[in-house]
Amino acid sequence: MKKQSKQIEVFAGAMWETALVQSMLEDAGIAVYQKDGIMGNMFPWYTAGGGAGSIRLFVEEFDYEQAADIVSQYEINRK
Fold this sequence. Notes:
alpha+beta; Alpha-Beta Plaits; three-stranded antiparallel beta sheet; 3 helices; 22% strand; globular
């Protein structure tokens, strides 16, 4: 029987920001899963960056370390 991998949240933010981070992760060959993306598309003014209503990105547990490094670099460079 195949062991199930779990998904870990790696980023949360507004629609435009999660799209950018998702693109960066996918460019690195990491599969990304979105949660609450429909809410972000229907009511983008409710999706506060990282807060209530934000769009959340998840990656597989085995990709988490690499994904966390990419997100960390993004967060350092956006300031």
